[in-house]
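for ur thesis appendix - Membrane protein. copy paste whatever u need, i formatted it the way the template wanted (i think)
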Amino acid sequence: MKSLIYTIFAASVLAAPVVSIAQSDSPVTRTQVRAELKQLELAGYMPASGDEPSYPANIQAAEARIAVQNDAASGYGGAVSGSSASGGGAATHPASAGDMNKLYGGQ
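the 3d part is after this line
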C-alpha cells in the first residue's frame, strides 16, 4: 500500500509541470480589448446597432476586412492574380543518339 502512495505521489509531481505549461497564455488587457473593438468599428462592425440576427456574419466580415488590411500593411500578402511557369518548353522532337552521346560523353 505504501508503494502505491509513493507511485501516485511521483506521478502527480511529474504531471504538474505539464499542466502548468498548458496555461501559459497571458490575459488580455482592457487596453487591448478596446483597441480591437475600435479596429472592428473602423472596419464597419457596430456592436450597439441591435442587429443580433446577423451577429456572427457581421463580426466575421469585419474581421476579414481587418485581416486583409493587416496583410496589405505588412507587405506579405496573398497570391497575386496572374500566372507563372517555370522550366523550359517541351522539346518538339526527341534528341538523337548522337546528341545524347555528346551530352553524356563530354564532347
